[in-house]
Amino acid sequence: xxxxxxxxxxxxxxxxxxxxxxxxxxxxxxCKQYMQAYLDCLRKNGSNSTPCRHLxxxxxxxxxxxxxxxxDDWKNLGLNGVGENSVAKDNPKDRPxxx
Amino acid sequence: MNHLRAAxxxxxxxxxxxxxxxxxxxxxxxxxxxxxxxxxxxWRAPAHSLRREFxxxxxxxxxxxxxxxxxxSSSSTPPPRGSRPQFKTRQELYAARNRSLLMYTTAxxxxxxxxxxxxxxxxxxxxxxxGFAGTPKVGMGKFEADRLVPVEDAKRxxxxxNADTSDALPWSFVPQQKFVSVLPGExxxxxxxxxxxxDKDIIGIATYNVTPDRIAPYFAxxxxxxxxEQKLLAGEEVDMPLLFFIDKDVLDDPSCRNLDDIVLxxxxxxxxxxxxxxxxxxxxxxxxxxxxGFAGIEMAPRVEDRKKEDNSxxx
Lengths: 99, 315
What we know:
heterodimer, A: mainly alpha, globular, disordered C terminus, B: alpha+beta, Ctag/Cox11 (Pfam 04442), 7 helices, elongated
């Protein structure tokens, strides 16, 4: 972090803050059904994250629409190119392109 | 020769000592002789006063030069002091040369100082533009868009979730999924549920920890709910999301080669205000450090405590 500091604390020791800070609390449960859909998909797919990424996008879209998250490009959130269809199996269309 | 003398007397912006270089001089010898005539014409004052008031004498010499009817004044008088005018001219010549040398030297020094000052930002700009000498390209660092692309054929890593609360916090805090299997570089959501079981509004603050330690530099959270206060009203239940990813550089790290499972552990504490007015976990320092994985480490990072004698600050 600072040049010339004695090497006592490595990167692994210092907790790094999240890039965008903290999610505002969803006090009214406005995006609860999207969360439920995502959790069900995870359960169906053996907790494999890749087939359920479009549901990630739906949930974050819900948050952005209701002011519970700052609107941002999908590529900055790593969800660029994730398909919108609700196919649970691993579908090539679901895989995000490498930009 | 008189007309040549007149040529030397007329120009207002040229020094008499530069007369040899004037284009009107036919030859150096001729010009030199003319210079002497000119000098003779101007240095009418005695020698000692000239030396004392050197610069002003030079200026008056110009005035004399422009207004003098040159040819008539200096044509008939022989050189008043044989080699003296020559000496004064040479002094003037040297003085002029010294002055120009001084100007050049000063300019070089000023330029050198300026370059020294400008070198640091200029070098930084150059390095940032070209990435020379390993300068990192600073965009969003490890959260740049092209880092958040999953590595398709890599081995999946299971991220297990764990949740704890401090004893002083009457909340129930559980993860909503036991684990998620992710690819390196793939952003993924995870959810925790927190319920305030008491009848008061409580502000909680969470710390987190990733195990094992060698994955910690690669575990990055895009957005979460930790380190900032989370206020839950009495009896309220909320879902707390967490957007994270494992940096794809983990594939290049030899110590992380056999890593299949990692544990992400969150601990919620009650929040209190410290001496600086910031919210911090309301628990003893050891407990907070233990929740971040620094249990039993002497040199663990600590908040600097400047008012040790004041007992009201954090223990």
